[in-house]
Structure formats: C-alpha cells, structure tokens
Amino acid sequence: MADLPPDAPINRWKTLDKDLGRIGRLELGTQYVARPLVAPGVALAFVVVVAIAAAVFTGGSPDRLLVIAAAVFGAYMALNIGANDVANNMGPAVGANALTMGGALLIAAVFETAGALIAGGDVVSTVSGGIVAPEALGDGQAFVWAMMSALLASALWLNLATWIGAPVSTTHSIVGGVMGAGIVAAGLAAVNWPMMGRIAASWVISPVLGGIVAAMLLALIKPRVIYAEDKIAAARVWVPVLVGLMAGAFSAYLALKGLSRIVKISLEGAMLLGLVVGLIGWALAVPLIRRQSEGLDNRKKSLKKLFGLPLVVSAALLSFAHGANDVANAVGPLAAIVHALGDGTVSGPVTIPLWVMMIGAAGISFGLLLFGPRLIRLVGSEITKLNPMRAFCVALSAAITVIVASGLGLPVSSTHIAVGAVFGVGFYREWYMERRARRMGQLRGSLLPPEERVRRKLVRRSHVLTVAAAWVVTVPATALLAAGLFLALRAMAL
C-alpha cells in the first residue's frame, strides 16, 4: 500500500469510532452488572404498590399501619411462593422441552392467577385456627403479632430455600411459623399436636407415594409403548387411555382441592366426576391421537410429539389447582389479621376479602416471573433427565397421589409429591437400565464393572440430600424464626 502524501486529510472519524466502541462496551458491562438488580427492583415496586393499596382499602381504620405492614409481609410471602413452589408444576414440562421457559412462565402466571381468584379457598381455618387455638392467645393483639411473625418467618425461609436451590413446601413453612409464634405466645398446650403429627408424617408419605405412583406409570408406558415393536400403533391405544386417566384424575383433583369455594363435593362425588370426565377425555383423544400420529415414523422421537400436548395441559391444570389451594398460604394469615382487627375477634371463620386475594394472586405470578426460572430448571433438568413421557408420569402422579391420599385420609404436600415423583422416575430408570445392562451382559458373557455402573447413575445424589434436608428443617426453622420475630415485635409494641 502506497504511503499517503503529506497533505492528505487525517481520518479523525477513526478515533471517534474507537471512543464510541469503548463507550458501547462500557454500557454493555453496566447492563450486565445491573441485570441481577432488575428482578429485586420490580419486586420492591410491587410491595410498595401493595402497601399503597392496603392504605387505600383500610381507609381511616385506627389499625391502619398494622394492616399495611401485614399486607407488605403477605406480598413478600406471595412473591416467594411464586419463586419456589410453582417450579414443581412447570419444571417437568420445561425439562422435557415440551414448553419453553417463557411459555411456561406465561401459562403458569395465567393459571395460577385464575386458580387463586376463581377457586381460592374461602375459609382459611387451618392457617388461622387449626394449628394454634386463637382463644389460647388471650387478646387480639397477641394473635395479630403471631400471624405477622408467622408470615414474615415463612417468607424469609422460602427466600433462603430459593436462594440455595431447594424446593420446599410453602404449607409446611407457614404451619411451622404459626406453631413457633403460638408456642411463645401461649405455650405448648395451645398447639394442635395431632395435626402437627400428621404434617410431620407427610414429610415421608408425600414423596414416597408420589415417587411410587410415577414409577408405576413409567413402568406401564415403557414396555407397552416406548419399547413396543410398532410404537405408533401402541401409542394409538395407550395415549388416549393415559389422556383419559389424566382428565379424570385432574377433574377429581380440582374438585377436591380447588373448587371448594364454588361447590362443596365429597370424595365419592369427586371420583364419580373424574370417571365421567375421564371417559369423555378418552373418547375425544382416540380420533385426535390417530390423526396426530398419521405419517409419523416408528421411533421414540415420534412418541414425544404425541405426549407433548397432554403434558402442557397437565402442567396448566396443576398450576390452576396450585393457585386455588396454596394462595391461602400467602394471604391466610393476612386475612386472619384483617378479620381480627376489623371485627375485634380472633375466633370464627375467616373470610378472605377480594383485595387480599388479589395480593396473593398477583404476588405469586410476579414471584414466578421474576425468580422462578432457577428452580424450574432444577426440578426439570438437574435432578434427572426428563422427556415428555417421563414428565407426563410426574404430572399425572401428582394428581393421582392427592386423590389416593385423600381417600386414605393421609396428609400430603403437593410440593413433596411432585419432587418425589421426579426422583421416582429417575430411580426407576436407574433400576430398569441396570437390569437391562445385566441381561445384555449375561447374553454377551460379560458384565459391566462396578465402577462403570456407578458412573451411569441417572439421579444426582447431591440434590437428594439437599432437598431432603430442606424438607426436614422447614418446620423447625420457621418455628424458631417466627418465635424470635414474635418476641421482637411484641417488645417493639410495648
């Protein structure tokens, strides 16, 4: 390249381009650093809006500040429920690639909100009066401090559990909080210990039952569909049966757990409803699956397409039922506080006002959208590898287990059931592959060495220990935290 003549113009734009490039990189770096602060900022804005709304709805009440503080605690609790608990519904569908993360968040937000507003529990008897006898607390002031302590303690514990990546039961969190505050306020005799015993039993019953049901469903699907010689023909027979089972199970599940506000229904009535809806679902699925399976190749990948839509529907139904059932964990103590301050009594049924229910519904959705992806990924892909067939077994297990447990009178936790079902599917896969490897090794005259079999484990053991420990610690941790908060709040009030 020839040298430029001495009188050639100097390209000053090159220097400007370099400076703009540096500024652009600085802006990108600033955005990267600030990105983690966006979600907490939006959450804080939501809490501020809730405080303003509570101030508007309480009007000139003399206890206005207490209600505003309780509403802030309730909003914080709802955010943490959305961040932690909803992962159990959407994790399997995302892990199986039946839904994108964005699609899962949208569906969950819509159906959680719909479940909370349409079928949210009208009376929160267990939270406000079933764990600790309200009359044992003496005056209404002690009851209010106990409920506020329980609400804040359970929210803080859920926040910590989400941060360390442990899906825990929000029901157990609030129960532990109410128990701890109640013991400090009124002594050990005020606690309903038989109920606490049933809740402790659910630590074992829920995951074991969920895991067994999920493993049984996968054991049904594997030989009859996945490893069938003609997979498409087998799917045309069995997928409609499973869709009908899903429709019936979720109908009974919603009737038992989510529709109590609209209509009261017995277990027998829920089972009859499930049978009718299940038969209708099967009849509709037969032509649909036949049409959907036309032209598909006889391979496992084709089966994933046939299970995709039922899996998405089951995840949406689980979210609806969760919103209807677990919104009380966020707003139950808040509703009890509003009731106690408004009526001056701590006994009797506690009705949830619409504005309180709106706080719970909106908070769960915001928490899910802002903080939910981390635990959704953990449940969906970091415990064991899921595909649409395995994820369908997890979702269906959640509904069936609740129905079976209700019929047997056993206490269960939907969180523990869903996570236990994921573990159940994973451990069944390990057992199945181990048996298959041994059979193939016997045919070939050689077995896999022990170290190779260990390397092929399909469930991450570290998550088993983390999740189990978090489950066991939840009630005592929230109880101790609530007890300390109760003492602090009462001391501040004196």
Automatic annotation (TrEMBL):
It comes from the Bacteria. It is a multi-pass membrane protein. Pfam families: PHO4. Its main location: membrane. GO terms for cellular component: membrane. The chain crosses the membrane at residues 37-58, 65-83, 142-161, 173-193, 199-221, 233-256, 262-285, 306-324, 352-371, 391-410, 416-432, 464-489. InterPro entries: Phos_transporter. One of its GO terms (biological process) is phosphate ion transmembrane transport. It is found in: Membrane. GO terms for molecular function: phosphate transmembrane transporter activity. The keyword Transmembrane applies. Keywords: Membrane, Phosphate transport, Transmembrane, Transmembrane helix, Transport. Belongs to the inorganic phosphate transporter (PiT) (TC 2.A.20) family. This is Phosphate transporter. The lineage of its organism: Bacteria, Pseudomonadati, Pseudomonadota, Alphaproteobacteria, Rhodobacterales.
